[in-house]
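Case study: DNA-binding protein.
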Amino acid sequence: MSDEKQNDGRLLSKAEAVEYLGGAPITIKTIEALVRRREIGFLKIGRALVFPKSALDAYIAEHTVQPSPNPWGLTDAALRRIREDRSGGRGRTF
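Here is what the predicted structure looks like once written out:
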């Protein structure tokens, strides 16, 4: 079995959760603040807090900002041409 499949149901410590979320600027203090505000799923086993990988994945999904759609329905190439025109036409030859 691959490491990825073995870790799917794994519980991560605070330090492992920080690493999984990408490290800086996420710190253990950030994780603790997310727990206090109940913004991230966790389990309390005795005094220890552990985080299911699925809870971390859900947090990432909920906080991922999607790009805004093109309100005019233009292609990327058309938008680039407009931007070039607005910048004085540099790079275009006629």
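For the exam, be able to explain this: The two ends are 59 Å apart (CA to CA).
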